[in-house]
Amino acid sequence: MLARQVLRAMPRRSSPGGSSVNRLFSTEMTVREALNSALEEEMKRDDNVFLMGEEVAQYDGAYKITKGLWAKFGGDRVIDTPITEMGFAGIAVGAAFQGLRPVCEFMTWNFSMQAIDQVVNSAGKTYYMSGGSIDVPVVFRGPNGPAAAVAAQHSQCFAAWYGSVPGLKVVCPYDSEDARGLMKAAIRDNNPVCILENELLYGVSFAVDDAVLDPDFTVPIGKAKVMREGTDMTVVTFSKMVGFAMEAAEELAKQGISLEVVNLRTIRPYDRDTIINSVMKTNRLVTLEEGWPQSGVGAEIISFVSETAFDYLDAAPERITGADIPMPYAQGLENMCIPQVPDIVRVVSRMCQGK
Amino acid sequence: MKSFLRSVVSRRMMGRHSRSMSSNPSIEFTPFKGYKLEELPDNKIETNKEECLKFFREMALYRRFEIMADTLYKQRLIRGFCHLYDGQEAVLTGIEAAIKLTDSLITSYRCHTHQLSRGDTPANAFAELLGRESGCSKGKGGSMHMYYKKNNFFGGNGIVGAQVPLGAGLAFAHKYKKDGGLCVSMYGDGAANQGQVFEAANMAALWKLPCIFVCENNQYGMGTAIDRHAANHDFYTRGHYIPGLWIDGMDVLAVKKGFEFASQWCRDGNGPLFVECQTYRYHGHSMSDPGVSYRTREEVQSVRKGRDCIENMRNLIIEHGWADSAELKAIEKEVRKEIDEAVKAAKAAKELPSDHLTDDIYYQERPSFIRMIDEQTSLHHS
Predict the structure, then answer these.
(1) Greatest CA span in chain A, whole angstroms?
(2) Contact B140 A167 (CB under 8 A)
(3) pLDDT grade for B381, boundaries at 50, 70 and 90
(4) Which is nearest to A136 in space by CA: A122, A152, A154?
(5) pTM above 0.90, yes or no
(6) Closest CA to B187 of B137, B146, B221
């Protein structure tokens, strides 16, 4: 909530990719606060926006993303649903058919599989199938990918699956600026948008510019952001792994390797131009994601770069991904299945040998 | 199925013998059955010459449209899946007589005649079936994906049962917008077993959504008879805590009366209602199903002879002296002509030019890059 922000006068830390204007004041905001404030502002702005999902109202949200909104807007606009994803996702889409703008939460994206037909077939394809006569301004949102120790059925990353569907837009915020901007852009977009958040990022605090606090601040869907400039290698990544890539970049800098970190922000439609421009500059590419390797987001990125910018590659592009194993519960085993900062450092370092 | 046929006999013997001189006679029909309803509507309704002739023509139009679709399919001008509604016309006609075009309507893939009842022209509907640009979906949807947003018709849905939660969502929007509208959400006996139907019904009941869940029980879920696919095939009772109404779906007047009751129920804020319209389809499930491996030709013929909604309306009109046989044949001839001209227009229409292939992926926006079959032929837009 905006009320919890602390305005401090402090030297601007180099928040990756932040504004180039030196500011005396900086605001800290968690991703949770970013999402919550964006939802509140969009609901104020447009009466047709409403929220639905399990525990979003009276419980204030399983992960507190919707905290305070039921109290502010009431039970007609913030609606607790039964645990029936297929049913309520369908209701959200039907409401969108009639011109409302639902924000439908999946408590985690794992549960969206109960409703995947409504997301893909009823929401994603209807505008095309109707020759442009029925638009579907629905937003599906919720945490995606591994959390910690929640085991196989609760740890799947859905970026590749939903990202493969024409007609959907799929976005993955990393920091608070991403979260506010993409949430607002998604709600204002007349297409069905899937917002794949990350549970472990909800509590992380990021500095944000004043511009980010503006009620009309949006981040364009379909544009990636270069979080850190570099010259030796491009890492294309999204969500929590952006933070890991930034940490790895610091480590690699000590070894004299300059890593350019590209935060995709949008999985579909992804930003080809930013990726190509980066590869043209660095001549090396690695992709980084938490999801499974086979047919993942990295597989797509590498394929398209190899098709369009092969001549610019000095080395074979590679992927860093989650392991091709149903996520185990035990901590040590789980850590082996998710890319860690040392893994990123190790792979990039090896790929840059001889450069 | 036996009980369905038995009612044929009782139907004909029923008192529709009122050759009354009134211009607004009250016509009786098979009584409704109720589930958890304290009061049922009477099994009679006032009607008149004008209305009955209108019903006759409307059902004849739908019948002729579907027969023509059969022909076009066999000529391979309609391709892929094609699910025909002939036999069931009274259900749609009766519903539309009771609700408004400002109410929402949604159904399955058996949707051609809904496109017409909601206001599209036969020419445009055929054009969609033929994949031409003048179709409601510009030829991009086909038989299963017809929509008419202007009059609140939302398809045309290919996945069995998916339309039911969508319908509850449409009802949700009417309630949210406080516009007094309701949604009629139609599905078949096959879809009636889908889990999502019960999920939607639960939320509709909890939130008192103005949604009428309509099961068109045509006795078969694809090729499987109701007693083999439904442990309880009294579909109007399947709403459990939601009241239900059973209607003889072969009688347009019964359907109209039933839906007057159902729509008032919803508009009064009572929440959802389950309605079962007992009906029959003459064709198989789709054009790929001859429809004779799981039922006998005798059965189909006996329904045609004894329960056909158009024939029964014909008899009613003649009995009341509102028109004679020749006049009704003339109407049918005119309908045939209308349909023939519509087909002609549709056949002359062109397919959407290929540069419009990539329209309508996103709302009034073209993705800056669209991958086609290979990288070289892919499309870049600035």
Answers:
(1) 63
(2) no
(3) confident
(4) A122
(5) yes
(6) B221
